[in-house]
Amino acid sequence: MSKFSQFNNRCVRFQELLLEAIDCFKIGQEHLGINAMLDILDDLENLVEHCEYCSDKNIHIESIVLILRNILKCIENQDVVGMTDALEFSLYPLTIEWIKEVVV
Description:
Blueprint: H1 3-26, H2 30-51, H3 61-76, H4 80-103
C-alpha cells in the first residue's frame, strides 16, 4: 500500500472517529467517546507528521491546536456539551477543509 493511500485511509478513519465521538457524547456514552478521542488524537498526530513536508498546506494547524486547547478545557471542566460542540461545529468542519487541501 502506498503512503498516499495510507494517508487517505487515515483521513477517512479520522473523520469517521470524529463523528463516532460526537455521536457517543450526544447519547451519553462518554467512555466510548473518550476512547474515540484517544484514537482521534493518534490519527491527528500521524496526519500532521505526514503533512509537515507540505508547509504551505498547514494553514489550519494553528486553528486545530486552538480548538484542541478548548476541548482540553472542556475536559478539565467536565463540560461534555462544550466538548461535543467543539468537536462537531469547530474541529470536524475545519479538518474536512484541511484534509481536502492536503489531499489535493
